[in-house]
Structure to design on (181 residues):
């Protein structure tokens, strides 16, 4: 391995010389700021877990508000509390799992197996959460009596949410792809 490292270093120096590039040295601060795909996944899962928890707490406050009238509205907001709490738990589980992967100590086969496992669970969680979100949105619109402006606002929120969600999903999948490469 040392010989392969030395050969690679020698090849890079020859290429740098041929191209007229001076060697680039990185200080410790620059190296410390570098993030791997594994770091990105863990950070993103942690952020989504915290966001889910915050949204669950915010939804609790809506229970006592008058946005959706009557008992139907309270049940809808309780559904949102349960939904966001579930999202937070799922993302926290994925965060802890991804954080437990140690590429320096684990064999490549184990890292690959765990990466594939958590990617599969990520997709399973999406398959569970998307229909629940659609059901909650429908219940919310029904509790509001399908009032036109409320429905327009919900549809606008849905479009923005889907755009943001798709962008985040693509980023997650890109990080998983990078880890598997």
């Amino acid at each position: 391995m040392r010989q392969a490292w030395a050969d690679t270093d020698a090849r890079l120096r020859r290429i740098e010389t041929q191209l007229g590039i001076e060697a680039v040295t990185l200080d410790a601060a620059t190296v410390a700021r570098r993030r791997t795909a594994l770091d990105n996944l863990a950070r993103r899962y942690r952020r989504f877990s915290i966001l889910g928890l915050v949204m669950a707490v915010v939804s609790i406050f809506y229970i006592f508000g008058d946005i959706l009238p009557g008992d139907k509205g309270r049940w809808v907001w309780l559904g949102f509390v349960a939904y966001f709490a579930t999202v937070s738990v799922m993302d926290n589980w994925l965060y802890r799992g991804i954080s437990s992967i140690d590429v320096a100590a684990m064999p490549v086969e184990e890292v690959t197996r765990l990466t594939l496992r958590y990617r599969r669970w990520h997709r399973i969680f999406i398959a569970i959460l998307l229909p629940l979100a659609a059901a909650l949105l429908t219940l919310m619109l029904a509790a509001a009596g399908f009032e036109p402006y409320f429905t327009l606002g919900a549809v606008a929120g849905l479009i923005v949410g889907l755009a943001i969600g798709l962008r985040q999903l693509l980023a997650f999948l890109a990080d998983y792809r990078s880890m598997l490469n």
Observations:
- Helices lie at 2-19, 28-33, 37-63, 70-99, 108-143, 148-180.
- The chain has a mean pLDDT of 88.
- The chain has six helices and no strands.
- The two ends are 20 Å apart (CA to CA).
